[in-house]
Amino acid sequence: MTEGVGPALARMRLSNQLREMREDRPAAEVARAMHWSLSKLNRIENNKVTIQPIEVEALARHYGLTNPAEVGRLVELSVASRRRMWWRDEHEHLGEDFLNFIAFENDASHLYGYQATFVPAALQTAEYAMALTSSILRKPARDPRVRKIVDVRLKRQETLRARLAGDNPPHVSQVIDEGVLLRPVGGDQVMAAQLDHLVAMSAQANIEIVVTPFRLGVHPGLGGSFELLTFSEDDDLDVVFIETPAADFLLADAEETEPFREIMDELLATDAAGDSLDRAVANAVQALRQ
C-alpha cells in the first residue's frame, strides 16, 4: 500500500523494487531499451532521482510485469515520490542530505536521537534555536542564513506536532547529556524557558526524554551526536543523520546504521540508572540561579 507514504519512503521503495526487477539483466542493455543514459538508470536504482509514472509503466512492460495491480502499485509509488513538500523549497539554502533527512523524518514511525552538546532540534524553543544557530554559524541573529535555518527547524517542529496529533502518531525518544541542560545557551532567561519547554514536552504522549548524568561516566554516546529514524512498515530500513560544521551525512545502508540502533538501545536503557528529567532540570535551574 502507498496510502500515507511520503516522497522519501516512496522513492526508496520504488528504487529498490525496480532494482530487484532488473535481476541479472545488464544495466546497459536496459538503459538502451528505455532510451536512457546508463547514468540515469543508475541514479533511479540508487534512489538519487525520481522516475515519472509513464516511465515506470514502460519499464514494467520491459521487465514483463503484466499484473495491472502490481503495475498500478509501482505507479502510485512514483506519484508519491514526486509529490513536492515544503522542504523542497529550501534546496538553495540546505544540503541535499539534510533535505532527504527531513523527508524521511516526515515518514518515520520512531524518531530517536542522542545529543551531547545542545537540545535536540525537535525540542528547542524558537529563542534557543536562534541563539544556538547564531553561535554555531558565528553570525548575528538577523543574518538571513541564521533565520532560514531556524525557520526550517520550526517548520519541522510544526510538522511533527501535526503528526503527533494525528491518527497514527510517531514515537519520539531523545537522549540528552546532562551538560546540555547546564549550558545556558542564549542567557539565563532563554535557557530557563527552554528547560520549562523540555518538561512540558516530556509530559506529552509518545515523547520520551532521557538524561545521561555525568556520574554515569563512559557510555556509548560519547562517540558523537546523531539522529536515527525507524519505519514500522519497513523494518529493514533505518536512516541515520549526522550533522557536522563541515558536512552532513545521511546513512541508510543496514551495515552502517546497525551500530547506531545498538547505541540508541543502550542509551535508552540508562534511564533506570540516570536522573529523571524533572530532577535533572531542577538541578539545571538551581545552577542558573547561582
CATH class of the largest domain: Alpha Beta
The name of the CATH topology of the largest domain is: Endonuclease, Chain A
Look at the structure and give the mean pLDDT: 90
Number of domains as seen in the coordinates: 2
Biggest sheet record: 6 strands, mixed
Level of helix content? 40-55%
DSSP strand (E) fraction? 5-15%
Please, could you describe this protein's structure?
The protein has helices at 7-22, 27-33, 38-45, 53-62, 68-81, 96-105, 126-137, 144-164, 178-182, 188-202, 254-269, 277-289, and strands at 110-115, 171-177, 207-212, 226-231, 234-243, 248-251. Helix content is 51%, strand content 13%. It is elongated. A 6-stranded mixed β-sheet has the order 3-2-1-4-5-6, with helices on both faces. β4 (226-231) and β5 (234-243) form a beta hairpin. The protein has 290 residues and is of the alpha/beta class.
